[in-house]
Amino acid sequence: MNIRTGSSERQIYVGGEYVPENEARISVFDHGLLYGDAVYDTACAWSGKVFKLDEHVDRLFESAHALKIDIPLDKEGVKEVVLEVMRRNKLDNAYIKIIVTRGVGRMPLMSPYHCKPNLIVFAIPYLSLIDNRVQQEGLRAGISSMRRIPSECLDAKIKCCNYLNHILMRMEANEAGLDEAIELDIGGYVAEAPGYNVFMAKHGVLYTPGENILVGVTRQTVMELAVAEGLQTVVGRFTAFDLYNADEVFLTSTAGGIFAVKEVDGRTIGRGKPGPITLMLNQKYMELLQSGAQSTPVHA
Ligand SMILES: Cc1ncc(COP(=O)(O)O)c(C=O)c1O
Question: Where are the domains of the chain?
Fold first, then answer.
């Protein structure tokens, strides 16, 4: 499989070696392709420093462990590959993806045994997830008619490469003219969004769901920043009603940080623009990224 981003110069780590992008291949029999049987993590680098690299690599190993996928390198080895990919591609601000597929088995059948896992790492210049204007003004979101796959079926903590549930919900939202979907769980409680965790602010308190979610690194960072700013965060169960009536709603993700939501299902959130808590947390988050305080430098 060719992962083309337009550069023949770009170096990608795959199958134990660094190769030019147009030579980066995995087998069509890889279970990652055949069954979505793979895990991944996304990290970002700012000014030559990878933010919370340890946390991303820890989560990757936990996801792989839950699926009994043996990552071919240890944690230090994976981190070194990430940094080396950054160096080889001379990147400062980057979007980094670390993928581990279950690999090729003896037969292209669903058996997860006797497969040789494959580690893939690529880094590309940082790309914004959302149009700049939408980012400034706030997103228009809608609650999906579908439900997030419950953790009883597939633990939401596993960051796996099967994102169809999220993709379908995003498609539904986009095709209804909205920027993003809000995902409810089977019980009707707010879970997350396709690729984001969800926060609300009301009367100076932050609220975020705690079940049926990927435990986001940015979510954790926001909660740490909130503590530092003396803001209380309540982790719990919330309904659409709570979202509609929040003073502020925002989404969090490594690739992009903090995005205000200005509308949910046609209900204006607060004043219909990024609110003061969202703006303050976003500013603190950006300062933290730039400071490098919790980042790993690419060049030792
Ligand atoms: C389903 C889902 N929820 C939440 C997030 C946000 O997690 P993080 O802040 O670690 O990027 C992601 C990120 O990819 C995700 O895929």
Answer: 11-125, 132-290
